Amino acid sequence: MSMLLQTTINGIVIGSAFSLVALGLTMIWGIMHISNFAHGSFYMIGGYVIWTIITLLGVDFWLAILITAVVMAIFGAIVERLTFRPAEGPFSTPLSSLIVSIGLIMIFNNSVLAIWGARPETLGAINIQEFHFLNVTVTLQRVLIVVAAVILIALLQFFLKRTTLGMSIEATAQNAESARLMGINTSRVGSIVFAMGVSLAAIAAGLMAPLTNINIGMGDHMTTYGFVIIILGGMGSIPGAIIGGFILGLISSLSATYLTANYYEVIVFGVLILILAIKPTGLFGAK
Amino acid sequence: MKKLDKGLWMTALTLVVAITFLAGCAPSGGTTTSTAEQPGVVNIIMTVPLSGMLASFGQEQQEGMQMAVDEINAAGGVKVAGKNYLIKLTVMDDEFDASKGEDEVDMMLEKLTPKPVFYWCGSDVVGKVIMDENEKENLIMEIVSSDKAVVSTGNKLLIRLESDTRDVAKGFANITYDDMGCKKAIMLCGDDSASGLYRDQWIETYKSKGGQLLDSIDVDLFSTTDFYPFLTKAIAENPDVISTFASADSLVLMMTQAQQLGYKGKWVFGDVTEVGEVLHLIPAKAMQTMGTFCGVAAYETATLPEGQQTRFRAHIKKFHDKYGADKLWGSIVTNPYELCYAFKYAMEKTGTTTDAYAIRAAMADAVPVPEGVYPFYKINPDGSGEYCEFANICTNGVMGNSMVLYGDPSIAPKTSE
Amino acid sequence: MLLEVVNIDTYYGDAQALKGVSFNVANSELVTILGANGMGKTTLLKTITGLLKPKAGTIKFYEINIERMSTYDIVAAGVSLAPEGRGLFAEMSVLKNLLLGAYVHRDDKLGNKEMMDNVFELFPILKERQHQAAGTLSGGEAQMLAIGRALMARPKLLMLDEPSVGLAPQIVAHIFNIIKDLNNRGMTIVVAEQNAAMALSIAHRGYVLETGEVSITGEAKALLNDDRVKRVYIGA
Question: Which residues of B fall within a CB distance of 8 Å from A114?
């Protein structure tokens, strides 16, 4: 019983990170129709950025998260402007953004290697106070990951539903041409959404950083799982990304504990195929 | 039709731009050391992974080799038949890709003059391809591989210095059962092939001693987002010991998190982790409650013949002065360093810089080299290296005595320096 | 002239959709563009609003060249289009659709409130349905919302692309009454239509587009009596 509870809590913690990563991915797809295969690389860079800020500047963890979020948003906007946007010009094909994102993965990986070197970095002990109840262990950082993710998701909902800028983003997602006819600068909306998506991925990496090490490979799973989540939840759907993120977190945790850690990716993809067989557009996908 | 062409053109352009960027950002491929005056040149070529997950592994090999080359050249180079030769080292990134590495070696053999006779191959996937042609090419080749089967081919120019993972695994399984007294174990290791070699041998030896294997869990330890799910499962099975094969960074995180989840058992590391490195990464306060763990002993901590300890310290300092104090010092660095010296002495002894067969034969006699620091070291006739490795058991931060993990410490050269 | 389109060529890829089209609208005029499907009506409206860029020719709005301007600048300058197929934000409420219509005036909350009251007065049904998702509206209501949303931008030139399509005759009549009424109050309007009889009955002038070219142009009354127009578009 306590193992089930522990496993469920483990899943919610990972699910929080998955949700934040998938949110950015689904928004970028929904608004810009870009399959951003470099999303995991942005996650990785986010990890290195927060490590650098904390290690070099000695800044408090939460302030470091905030700085990382801002720095990565600016970085994302610049990357979008310099790579994806030109590739969307008059000669673009559906392949253009795919090639851009694959090129970015190579550039990012090698740049990270050149700047931070190949050895993994660790943040060390942050918020390691432990809480024990019902034979279950939770550390403060794990609680804070979930709390921070829930707050971010709520803020994002508020931003999209209640502010003019948020509404213009939603309008662009639903009908880009009409959005233009309302006087919305949709390429600016694209930049903003891309910046937000990158920032969310970086925040997720920052939140998880105290639990794991920061290395070149840390984003690889995130890209794969991010796409599994948004396909499972419905491409472009925000509730789909949130729910899908937590579902995948729970699946990966439960299967690692109860079935087999060795093949839990098989189970993840098995569930994806099952859901798509029942509802081909994903849980929250449009008809 | 026209539209499609434009699309393709754009696609190609994007690729070119991406690759140009990439080339700009990648670590430089070729490194040249010497500024030759009149002396002759001896080329050493090297392919190692310098990008991707194995980049640090390749970088350390490059640094070990570079240090020897720089020292030799600074001391006047190699003296063969009254003439001085400087060593020129060319290193390329094989990206851990067999065909890429093969192309690079072919290119270097064709372009470099004089033709290289010594090649350091840092990835066994590349080496297994080149192994078929190095004799034909008059090329001495060291292959970094944990699989001792590669030297069973009778290739006369092949050297394989690495210790065999399976020998280490046997040693650790013995220590786990005999010295640490652990009867119920869980194996938690990476899902790559090198980990698999270690895991299978460890389990076989452990079971043959009467140990009970509760579970074997493979995890992509390098890029996993969180260790809790695997640890929750492992700890619920209530083992005496968790046997691992993982980098020190991942291990320390796992050990800390297992402790949070209430684990009080012991840990055994594979030979990818040195005890000293783990101690270095665990915060001092946490150390007192960290329990018992066992891993390969670093040179500094192993019980070594008299005089060696000080030699090591001096040597590590030299290395740290050159490459930075946070660099790890282990066989990955020392093997290329010492083999480069062996190559130098072999050329001087045989009086040739071109006859690979003669040089290769003399290299075995040149070992151990006086500059060397790894004492229990010898090249067998089949090309395999011989070591003795130590393990240390550490309890709550206190290091115990070294014990022999595998090999025979009596083959150590008597040195009084 | 409020709007002056001169010799416009517009392409979809390699296919030329408009061939030297010239077209103008005076202040307070109601002009209709007639033509069957695929003749270039929608292309012309998209070119004026900057959604498509012409390869040649000029477009002047209040004597300023707008043919190279971005859509958002053109909309801000006072050109508003209720697009073909309404182009509503289906998953958003009627209210949010209207608010987005006023996007270019997003900082003028008071003015928008006033404008919204005007729209609700014009289309009372939208007020009733304001919290409903736009996707759940009937065809007539959706068209009213499209027009209402275009009005929220407080345009100097209102353009409607096929407002009658898919609607029952009495609803079409109702909507055209409102269009005429808006024009009577001084709004300059361009209506692209297949329903030539209905459009010409309220318009001052008309243009007929055939395979991307203006084939006939003139006063609405003259066009109503033109044999070619009658034969092809009115079916008399």
Answer: 25-27
Phi, psi at residue A213, to the nearest 5°? -95, 160
Residues of C in contact with B3 (CB under 8 A): 13-14
Burial class (CB in 10 A: 0-12, 13-18, 19+), C190: buried
Identity of the amino acid at B313: R
Q: Directed axis angle between helix A164-174 and helix A2-32, to 10°?
A: 80
Q: What is the pLDDT of residue B301?
A: 64
Rg of chain B's alpha carbons, rounded to an integer?
23
Rg (CA), chain C: 17
pLDDT value at residue A103 = 93
CA–CA distances in Å: residue C75 to residues A51, A146, A189, C33, C151: 46, 43, 17, 20, 11
Please say if the pLDDT value at position C154 is more than 90.
yes
> Per residue in B235-255, pLDDT tens?
989 999 999 988 888 888 888
Amino acid letter, residue A233? G
Q: Mean pLDDT over residues C91-112, rounded?
A: 94
Average pLDDT over residues B92-106: 90
3-state DSSP: chain C helix, strand, coil percent, rounded to 5? 40, 25, 30
Architecture of domain B40-163+330-386: 3-Layer(aba) Sandwich (3.40)
Structural domains in chain A, CATH included, are 2-278 (1.10.3470)
User: Is the confidence at residue B146, as pLDDT, over 60?
Assistant: yes
Second-level CATH architecture of B165-270+275-302+389-411 = 3-Layer(aba) Sandwich (3.40)
Residues in chain A, pLDDT under 70: 1, 89-92, 261-262, 286-287
> Which residue, among A88, A113, A208, A258, would best test binding to B if mutated, counting the most B CBs under 10 Å from its CB?
A113
